[in-house]
Design brief:
The structure holds 2 protein chains of 2 kinds. By secondary structure, chain A is α/β, with parallel strands linked by helices. In chain A, 43% of the residues lie in helices and 17% in strands. In chain A, helix 2 (47-62) crosses helix 10 (294-307). Chain B has 2 domains: 2-475, no CATH class; 616-688, no CATH class. Chain B is built from 28 helices and 2 strands. In chain B, helix 10 runs antiparallel to helix 17 and helix 23 (542-563) packs antiparallel against helix 24. Residues 487-535 of chain B have low confidence and may be disordered. Classes of the chains: A alpha/beta, B mainly alpha.
Chain lengths: 364, 693
């Protein structure tokens, strides 16, 4: 993919747009009487949509001038369509922002030929991460991750949405642990995967944190499922630590160490870590064009900081978003860079792995 | 259970609850009337109000909204032949011909009565079903879901009526087009023609409108008379309700069917109306009226599609897995309200579940009641001169198609599918068969892939699979027997124009015009001298052969394109492709070597006498002109100018009148855009100057 050319064209386009309409740039960050469009490149009702619609009214209330914030869903291409449209059309005035997700990040990282956006052309306003928990069927007869060695020969079945989807993180994780997992492709979503698990068609699965708490914990209480480990989360230095939502569960790095008897290292691990970061701690990013003036960005950051203390926000957040904090400013910047600036070596390794293990080519 | 039920009734019976439910219903009806808009637009409208409301009232509004959308989208399905959503596609088949016979009010009242019946029966069934729903839903694994898709596909036999080969070819073409995009098993892209838009496949709404509404609009434009052929209404809404009472058993059956199918996650909404329609055609003794305005063809899908929403609540509430688009929206709303779907909904939160189920029923009562009252006045639309109504319908279907993915390519796809629809109609290839193939192709492929990986051949031993297989075999057998007996031809194939041209080859049409019409078409002169067989000149098969060749060409491209992918990605399109090619070969063979007056050989252009007026391509050019203008100047400007032009030139309206009507429509769209936060197509003008509407 010719990232460089694309970005240059986009910059030129943005510059021309700015010339054509000098009045469109706000001189001071005041959104009085304005309508801010939050573009969500997914269908209504999904996770990203819920995230966007949860935040919209607070942005509206806390941005200077109390603008109207509307959520605009542009689904298609697993979010590529909407992100492409944002890249082509958005002006650097803070009036159009994009909510991306891991499904936007992954094709970008993998060099999908349909991608005509570049994260280097954007700047982050807010980041929101999540985690996930891997669990197995209780019929396997193990009670925690230490039992994995005992069932190493047992065939495990995992349902994936597709080789290049966010599910490449768990599939790669199972490979790193040396588990005998058969990956079934073509599951239509994580919910469908859980349903197949409940039907007994699958016996290993993972769910993101909120879905896990909502739908898997009852299964565990009934004795149908056994949690093994969480993916973990990043500390301030970007190191992998236990997920605060699941302090009793080891994170993936601990399990790796228990299985292999040494701290995780090597290109396979680094690749997993890179895609894990892009997929989970940086799962949702609110971005604006890079040329957006600082005062506009600052207005967003201040608004997020302020509404994070809003009692109504605090009351609604656990159900809508789970336990993780939405971060902004420097913390968001760190996550943004980790997620979108993945080393080429890791990307190349993942491409080779997908080709060798699943015969999947990434041509369009 | 009783305790929860009484608690739910106490919740329901408060003035506040009913009031908010009513607000939701009115919102839902208003939004649902616009084709292409559904729960999603309604949700955006509702969203700002949901915050700060108490849970029960907010939930009531949300349910009111979701419940009535399959009710109000019936208006455009019946009156204009525009399927407002995927749930009302089958309604078009008989609903629209009824409108053409001036019976719009009757058809609408019957439809709304059936919707009401579906809503109530659905709630009743769910009240008991909810207790066993969880284990029951879990018995539907991927193998059973695949078999359900096969059962749906077997309806093709019923719906293609006399032209079985043509029905099969149409279904095959539909399945091939339905396979465009990512392969369910591997995510590899195939048959995309290198166009980004096709990576997701064609949107169902666009295909539904292109197949059904588009050809009818073109047809009516050529005739230039009102939708109701006499220009007046004959049936009344009381007649419609009488029909409902007469066919009460059918409505109950289809309601139950809709509830159960709606409750199965993964198949759900999109086929329920077709399965109900196939059912009624199968069990009816006299099938001659289907496709030409049999009221049972309206009652069956309408009772099923409202019941479906109730059924769809089950996977949504119990597993957090939405069964349909509307339920996805509902689930999103529930999350925002802090209600957690899951197993608790049948235990500790059972009263909440019952509140939701019975709110849905109550909303159906309110919605259907309102609609029945409105049926007669709105039905008057069908008496308007069509040259006045048509441009607004064209603008409306463009608007609806654009809402599918909000991309200008939606409009291009509408033109493409519309062209296919026109040809299918002209040669009496079954459009329902095409649509069923289109809808079920990804489902069948996806579940087959999963079932094969999970069970292999073992799947044939699963009891659920065997039961559905038995139902399928019986259904196919019954269908085949009827065809063999030659009893009462089912006219569900394409021709819903009610001109009596269905019989084919001019033999049965009996309107005297048949013999002479051929002269209008180019190739006719050669053919007209051919053997006359007493009942009109034989139909020149060459246009049909050309279409068979085009179909085969499309299929060959699809096969070739798929073969470049991995086996899991090409297997399905290749098998379908081969079957379709065989059907094409059979049709071609029969056209060339069969009797020239055979049933298969049918060309509406040479039979019905419409060719004397303006041509299909002239009407097509008007619509394409609107799409081109939209690409250039955006929807608002294009619709204003184009409407004025059309009204002036085609409807011969005065300049002032044309301008006023066009301006009113454009202002209306602007209002819809800002009130409902709906996006309208932007053209080059808007891309250059961002602030132009």
């Amino acid at each position: 993919m010719t990232v460089k050319q694309a970005s240059r064209r986009d910059v030129l386009g943005a510059a021309l747009a700015a010339l054509a309409l000098p009045g469109a740039n706000l001189r001071a960050a005041d959104f009085s009487g304005r309508v801010i469009e939050m573009l969500i490149p997914f269908k209504e009702g999904g996770g990203s949509d819920t995230w966007g619609r949860f935040n919209a009214p607070y942005l509206s209330r806390y941005l200077p001038g109390r603008p109207t914030v509307v959520v605009r869903n542009v689904p298609g291409g697993g979010s590529i369509t909407g992100a492409n449209r944002f890249a082509a059309r958005a002006r650097p005035d803070g009036l159009t922002v994009l909510g991306t997700s891991a499904s936007t990040q992954f094709p970008y990282l993998m060099g999908d030929p349909r991608v005509r956006y570049d994260y280097r052309d954007w700047r982050v306003l807010m980041a929101y991460g999540t985690g996930g928990v891997v669990y197995v069927s209780s019929r396997l007869g193990i009670t925690d991750h230490t039992g994995l060695a005992r069932i190493a020969a047992e065939p495990l079945l995992y349902g994936s949405q597709g080789p290049t989807s966010l599910d490449l993180v768990p599939v790669l994780a199972f490979k790193l642990l040396g588990l005998n997992v058969r990956t079934i492709f073509g599951i239509s979503g994580r919910g469908a995967g859980r349903l197949a698990f409940e039907r007994g068609e699958l016996n290993i699965d993972y769910q993101t944190s909120t879905a896990y708490l909502r739908n898997v914990v009852p299964l565990i209480e009934q004795g149908d499922a056994v949690p093994l480990f969480s993916w973990g989360t990043l500390d301030d230095e970007g190191g992998l630590v236990r997920d605060p939502s699941f302090p009793d569960l080891p994170h993936f790095g601990e399990v790796y160490e228990a299985v292999h008897g040494r701290a995780p290292s090597g290109i396979a691990w680094e690749s997993w870590f890179a895609f894990f970061t892009a997929g989970f701690p940086a799962q949702k990013l609110l971005v604006a064009p890079r040329e957006t003036p600082d005062d506009v960005v600052l207005a967003y950051e201040d608004a997020v900081r302020a509404y994070r203390r809003d009692p109504e926000y605090l009351a609604g957040k656990p159900a809508a978003l789970g336990a993780y904090e939405q971060v902004t400013g420097a913390a968001a910047q760190t996550i943004y860079e980790l997620a979108t600036d993945v080393p080429q070596s890791a990307i190349a390794w993942v491409r080779d792995w997908l080709r060798d293990d699943f015969r999947v080519s990434l041509e369009g | 259970m009783l305790e929860a039920l009484t608690a739910a009734i106490a919740n329901l019976a408060t003035v506040e609850h009913v009031l908010f439910l009513g607000v939701g219903v009115v919102l839902g009806l208003t939004v649902g009337v616009f084709p292409g808009l559904g729960g999603i637009a309604g949700l955006s409208l509702l969203m700002p109000f949901l915050y700060g409301m108490d849970t029960v009232s907010a939930l009531a509004m949300l349910i009111g909204l979701v419940a009535v959308i399959p009710t109000s989208d019936t208006f455009t399905s019946v009156l204009m032949g525009i399927p407002g959503s995927s749930a009302s596609q089958a309604t078009v088949l008989d609903g629209f011909p009824l409108s053409q016979q001036g019976e719009a009010a009757r058809a609408l009242a019957a439809a709304f009565g059936a919707s009401l019946c579906g809503g109530l029966v659905g709630a009743l069934i769910l009240t008991f079903f909810v207790q066993i729903a969880r284990p029951l839903i879990l018995t539907f694994g991927s193998a059973e879901l695949f078999m359900l898709a096969v059962l749906g596909l077997s309806m093709v036999g019923v719906l293609s009526g006399s032209g079985l080969w043509k029905g099969l070819a149409a279904a095959g073409l539909g399945m091939t087009i339905g396979s465009i995009g990512a392969a369910p098993a591997t995510g590899e892209f195939r048959i995309t023609f290198g166009i980004d838009y096709l990576y997701d496949g064609l949107p169902l709404v666009v295909v539904g409108i292109g197949l059904f509404a588009f050809p009818e609009i073109i047809d009516l434009l050529r005739k230039g008379r009102p939708i109701a052929s006499g220009g007046r209404l004959t049936g009344s809404w009381a007649n419609g309700l009488r029909d409902l009472v007469r066919h009460w058993a059918l409505c109950l059956r289809c309601s139950a069917l809709g509830t159960i199918i709606g409750a199965i996650p993964g198949l759900g909404g999109t086929v329920v109306d077709w399965i109900a329609y196939g059912h009624v055609v199968q069990v009816a003794k006299d099938k001659s009226g289907f496709g030409k305005g049999d009221i049972r063809g309206v009652l069956a899908p309408e009772s099923a599609n409202n019941a479906k929403e109730g059924g769809g609540l089950m996977p949504t509430l119990l597993f957090g897995i939405p069964g349909s688009g509307a339920m996805a929206v509902f689930l999103g709303g529930m999350v925002l309200l802090g209600i957690e779907a899951g197993p608790a909904m049948v235990s500790s939160d059972l009263d909440l579940t019952y509140t939701i189920v019975w709110s849905l029923a109550l909303a159906n009562v309110l919605g259907a009641g309102l609609c029945i009252v409105l049926a007669r006045p709105i039905a008057r639309l069908t008496t308007l001169p069509f040259n006045y109504l048509a441009p607004f319908m064209i603008v409306a279907i463009s608007f609806a198609a654009f809402q599918a993915t909000r991309d200008l390519m939606d409009l291009a796809a509408l033109l493409g599918v519309g062209a296919i629809g026109v040809v299918l109609k002209r040669f009496a290839w079954s459009r329902p068969a095409f649509l069923i193939g289109f809808v079920l192709a990804p489902q069948a492929e996806g579940y087959l892939n999963l079932a094969a990986q999970f069970y292999g051949w073992q799947m044939l031993l699963r009891p659920g699979v065997l039961i559905i297989l038995a139902i399928t075999v019986v259904s196919v057998f019954l269908g085949a027997r009827q065809v063999r007996r030659g009893a009462a031809t089912v006219a569900v194939d394409s021709d819903v124009s009610g001109d009596g041209a269905v019989g084919g080859a001019g033999a049965a049409s009996g309107d005297g015009a048949v013999g002479g019409t051929g002269a209008a078409s180019g190739a006719a002169a050669i053919r007209a001298t051919g053997a006359a067989n007493g009942s009109g000149s034989p139909v020149d098969p060459r246009p049909q052969l050309a279409f068979v060749a085009v179909t085969a060409g499309m299929v060959v491209y699809a096969v070739a394109s798929s073969l470049q992918r991995s086996p899991l990605a090409w297997m399905f399109p290749v098998i379908i492709g081969i079957a379709t090619l065989l059907a094409c070969l059979a049709i071609g063979g029969l056209l060339v070597f069969g009797a020239p007056d055979g049933k298969l050989n049918f060309d509406a252009e040479q039979a019905s006498g419409t060719a004397a007026g303006s041509t299909i391509s002239a009407q097509f050019a008007w619509i394409a002109g609107f799409v081109a203008a939209t690409a250039l100047a955006g929807f608002v400007i294009a619709s204003a100018l184009w409407l004025a032009l059309f009204l002036r030139l085609r409807a011969e309206a005065g300049i002032v009148r044309a301008l006023l009507l066009a301006a009113a429509a454009s202002l209306g769209f602007l209002a819809v855009e800002s009130l409902l936060v709906v996006e309208l197509p932007r053209g080059l003008v808007q891309v250059w100057w961002g602030s132009v509407p």
